[in-house]
Structure formats: structure tokens, C-alpha cells
Amino acid sequence: MTESMNPEPAITPAIVAEHGLTPEEYDRLLAFLGRAPNLTELGIVSVMWSEHCSYKSSRRWLKTLPTQGRQVIQGPGENAGVIDIGDGQAAVFKMESHNHPSFIEPYQGAATGVGGIMRDVFTMGARPIANLNALRFGSPEDAKTRHLLAGVVAGIGGYGNCMGVPTVGGEVNFDPSYNGNILVNAMTVGLADRDRIFYSAAAGVGNPVIYVGAKTGRDGIHGATMASAAFTDDAEEKRPTVQVGDPFTEKLLLEACLELMATDAIVAIQDMGAAGLTSSSVEMSSKGDLGIELALDRVPVRETGMTPYEIMLSESQERMLMVLKPEAMETARAIFVKWELDFAEIGRLTDSGRLVLTMNGGTVADLPVQPLVDEAPNYDRPWQPTPARAPLDAASIPAPADPLATLARLIGCPDLVSRRWIWEQYDHLVMANTVQRPGGDAAVVRIEGTRKGLALTTDCTPRYCAADPKRGGAQAVAEAWRNLTAVGARPLALTDNMNFGNPERPEIMGQFVGCIEGMREACLALEFPVVSGNVSLYNETNGTGILPTPVIGGVGLLADVSKMASLAFKTAGQAILLIGAGDGHLGCSLYLREIEGREDGPPPAVDLAAERRNGDFVRRLIEGGHVTTCHDLSDGGLLVALAEMAMAGGIGAEIALPEEAAAAPHGWLFGEDQARYLVTAEADAAAEILRMAKAARVPASTIGSTGGGTLTLSTGHTISVATLKKTHEEWLPAYMREA
Predict the structure, then answer these.
(1) Would you say 156 and 111 are in contact if contact means Cβ atoms under 8 Å apart?
(2) pLDDT tens, residue by residue, 94-150
(3) Is pLDDT above 70 for 241?
(4) 52 is catalytic
């Protein structure tokens, strides 16, 4: 190998450790390379073998998830998943994390997370039509929470709004476990023609390799490595590893790529995301079983004196790598010049099976491609199952003197208050196709030119996952499926974002394994396959990990958006029906935590057969026009769901507690039993719905009626809907106004 113009240091054990490789992993590198690497080669291997890029602690478990179905066009392994939505159309979607960068620099961390996930989607040939997010912050009392929340929300809105893509849904929760490590999970959904999906496998020896988009700088170097390690007290010093985004450049890149995709020029295309030029070039060539040669002095750079190491490991944003047909070069160049973006031929495909990098006339790196992928560690880490919690002693939980005063406390707690302050900073109506806005069970986006709509949601209940990972993983999938069902959509597929602590700790690895097992069972039972996803490990600071947080991003299809259901009460005098059964489960509930100051007991059971049966029945009710509103029951139980429906519609309700609830009314009112929905219907239709439910073997009962301006219980307690709404709406704006 010809020496680089920039002399590189000898590789020492300390340098190897700084790159996140264990001694055993370095020995593996020496074995396939047959010599010591130089610094550039070490950097390339370190990022390709990082947790973030190689999934070395999670691969064997991810492979157990169901990924196939009649609707699946492309499952995990590409930039994003693809499903068939009929009429020659496909939905393309994925979720990604930007957790560590967003804690270090919340605005840019969140903004570039949004930019990166949108590139994953339009790399496949899809125009993004919706963004969602799932955010977790520390305790509101923590000194950094307000600053982090403000920065993350501004970053998400700033990038998505500039791109002209609506941010239509998401979730936000608070817990002390996230004090030192927040979670920012971003999801994008796009539309493409079914027969015009673009993939990343390189093909054609001699075909040119093209760099397009923004110039390469020094921002984001070691971003993948930083995302694969736990935080210590020096987290702030990692600020240079955070990428800097430019949504206006990404908008140009989106339009240029889609214009080029309308031609027959592209052989393969890959976003430069984590590990930048390294991962994009290696992944493209490895998938095509080819070699690749890159001339690094042809890479457009925005800083002087950049070394091969810096160029290959930079995670500068708004960049793509393409393989083009030689005869299409000038057509492609003209498109990118028109959009004022860099277009540079930086290499070619070879039959050598090697990644060869040159600069200033010399070879600066020469590595076999396949071992960078195939020889990546694949650990079967030791794991311990999470001990089962003892059943809750129901007698130890006193009933509240006034359930509706308790409701007001719950509806005003940080986990249940209105998120309006957040979503009003996002342009959720741009493109004019958002037909169900944030605040409901699922967002609904009309597919332009059709009657169809896509329903979209993100869901997870981390406190359940901490108490019983298997049950919590199943519940996360079931709740996403239920939220899509509640608007009338047929759930089609999901993407996931697995956020956990240090997998080298057996108890954390046990949480991961348990959640995967629960997710697998739920996906199979609900015919809800996983088509894409992301794993984010080492989410902990100074040895303290986050709650296990396997976020589920669900996508469903409405054949006719005019039949969509929403949660707002529509008019007075309608019957309120409860679909599904429960035993008043208060273990792990918000009631127990917020009112009693306890977090004990197991989470509610997840009966997947009941989920399927009850959900399919509710969807038939919506499709048949039998119900006027629908809302699933989750955090806070029946009374919280009822209050949300009343506040959304500005209409009250009278509720009759059943005789069996007399002994423990708080269980019936606040229990978080699963597989349940509240629906409303015209009073004279209620009997027919109950008959249909009995025929379908679905538990159902009429529990009250809509009307007035209060919520009133048969116990004699009452509260104004306006009072509830004021409590519900005020907390977050007031919190963010505080000094």
C-alpha cells in the first residue's frame, strides 16, 4: 500500500480502545486483514462493527421477529420497509433513533434525526407524506428537562416544517430514568409506485459511483461510535460528534433524487447516514458482492485539509451515494446542477471484492468488503429474565372519595396532559391531506387522488416493559394495532425502535429478549409484521439505564377516509358502549403511580386472541357506519378515555357503574385492562350493536349516554368538562413558561 500524504500514527491498544473495539474484535480484524490496519482502516472497521451499524448484540434476536406477509414488498435489510397498499401504490416507512445526539445538542440532534429518516424513505423512491415521533424525557423536576424538551421540539419542527412534510402524530412521556439519556425516535412514511422502488445493492462492474448533495465536513465524525456507547459525566464534551442539518439543502436533494428516479439512470442508491461514506459504500458493494474504488480527493468537501479518515467517517447531512448507468451520467449531472447540488464521480465498481481508497495519488486504505459485514461480531450475550412481580393486593388500594376529583389529578399529570403546545409547533397540515390531526388515537393522511388514507401511530408503555418485558413488548404491538383499529384502519405492518440500556449487563439483555419475545407473539397473532426498524442500546448514564422502551410505529389502511372514526363526542343523546372486558387491573397503572405513589404489581395481561376478536369487531362497526365515535382504552383506563372523548367534543356524559364495580369502583374506572374500546352510537342502535357483539363473542355493554356539560357518575359525583379541559391544557404551556 502506498503511504498517505498524511502520516498516520501506529495503532496501539489505546487507539483501538478509543475506537470502541475490544481486544478480541481487534484480533478478528487482524485475522481477516492479515496485517495491522492503518488509522483510516481501523476507523472504517470500528464504525462498521459498532453496535449502531452492525447490531452485534441484537441481530440473533431480531431475526426471530415475523417480517413477511401478503402485503410486504420489502422487509428489514433495506433503507426502509415497503408494503403494498393497492392500486399499484406502496407505503414506505421506517423509524430511527437520534437519542445521544439529541441529549448533547437537542436542536441539531433532533433536526438531523428527522432529516436522516426522511432520506431513508426517499432513497427508496418514495415522497415523504408524514412524519411522527416518539419522545421520552426525564422528570419535569430535573434541571435539564425543560431545555431538552424545548430544543428537541424546535429541532423536529424546524426541519420537518422546512421540508414541507407534515408532522402528524407521536407521543411524549416523562420519567426520571431518562434524566441523563432522553429518547428521540423519528418516523417517516412515504408513497411510491409499487413498481418503482429503488434498492441499495450495487451492480455492474465498471459502473460509476456518484456522490450527490451537500459537501462533506468534519461534523458528526464518530457519531455511530458515540451512539454505541453509554454516557458518563463528559457527555457535553461529545458535542462535535453531533451532525449539523440544513433542511433547505435536503429539500433540494429530495426533489433532485425524485426527478432522477423518474428516469432509468439509477442502478443503486444509498443514503449517507450513520458512518457516512463508509457505511454507504460498504453496504452497496457488499449487497452486490462487488468491490468498490473511491478517489477521496474527488469528494466535495467544505473544509480544508480533511484526511481520508475524516472524509470516510464524517456524518455530514444531506448526502447520497449512487451507482448510475454510464450512459445516464450527463442526464443525472444536469438534474443536480439544476438543483444547485454537488454531483461528483468519485469512483467505480470493481470485481475485486475490496474497498480501495486513494488520495493524492496514493492508496490510503485497502480492505476486503465482505468481512466488514460478514465478520462483524454477532454476540449471544448472557441474559437474565426479569423477575415476575407479585400480584397486587387489591385491598391495599383504597378507593378515592371523589373519583372525578381523582380524574382531574390524573388528566393534569405530565404523562396525560395535552401535547398541544408541542404539536402546534409542527406544521401538521402542510400538503393539505391530514384528515385526522394530532391528539387522537392515530393520525390519518389522505392518499392524494384516491379515497384511501393511511393511519399512523407510535406507541409504547415503558413502565409495563420494565415490570414484565414480554408482556410489555406484546402490549406495545397490541396498542399500536388497537390505535389504528380505533380510527377504522386495517393494520398492515410496523416499524420498531428498540431503546435499551447496556446489553453487556444480563438484566438489560433480559429486558431486550423479553420484549422481542412478546412483540413476536403479538405480531404473529395480529398478522402485523415488522418491515423495518432500529436498535439503540447503551442508553444509560453512569451505569443507570433507561426504562426498556421498544417503540412501535404502526401503519394501517383506510379504504375510504370518509368512514374514518375519531374520538370526539359528536352530539348529545347518544349511547356510550364499552367493548371488551376487564377485571379492574391497577398494577403498573397511572392511577397507582400518580394517586397512590406506588409502582408495584404486574402490568395488565395481554390476551392476543381477545385483542384480535374485539378489534376486528370494532373495525366492522366503524366500516358499517354503526358507531359515531371510537377510542381505545389505555393509560388511565376507562374514565380517562371518557374524559378525552368529552374534552375533544365539548360534550359531557352520564355514566352508570355496573353492580359488580360497587366493591372496587376505582378498578372499574381507572384499571388499565387491555383489548377495550369506548364507542358511541345513536340510542336506538345500541341494542343491535350488543346483539352483533354477542354473536361475535365480544363482551359489550351500554354504560351511559352523552349530553350536557359535565361528566356525571351514578355515584352522584360530577365535574365540568370545561374544568377538566382547562386542567388538561394548562400544564405543559405553564411548565415551558417557567424560568
Answers:
(1) yes
(2) 999 999 999 999 999 999 999 999 999 999 999 999 999 999 999 999 999 999 999
(3) no
(4) yes
Q: Is 717 a catalytic residue?
A: no
Give CA–CA dist 72/54, Å, rounded. Answer: 24
Cβ neighbours of residue 585 under 8 Å, at least 6 residues apart? 604, 605, 667, 671, 672, 673
Residues pairing with 454 in the sheet: 445, 557
Q: Which residues are CB-neighbours of 355 under 8 A, at least 6 positions away?
A: 44, 281, 282, 285, 291, 292, 294, 365, 366, 367, 368, 369, 372
pTM of the model: 0.95
CA distance 589 to 598: 9
Helix (H, G, I), strand (E, B) or coil at 189: strand
- Tally the residues of the chain: 739
Q: Which of 19, 52, 631, 728 is catalytic?
A: 52
d(CA 604, CA 353): 53
Cell of 382: 448472557
- Buried-exposed string 233-261: b where 16+ CB fall within 10 A, e elsewhere: eebeebeebbbebbbebbbbbbbbbeebb
Taking the CA atoms of 692, 697, 703 and 708 in sequence, report the sign of the dihedral they define.
Answer: negative
pLDDT band for position 392 (50/70/90)? very high
Q: Are 209 and 322 in contact (CB under 8 A)?
A: yes
Which CATH number is 565-739 given?
3.90.650.10
* Catalytic residue chosen out of the listed positions 19, 98, 631, 666: 98
Scanning the structure block, which residue is given the C-alpha cell 433536526?
111
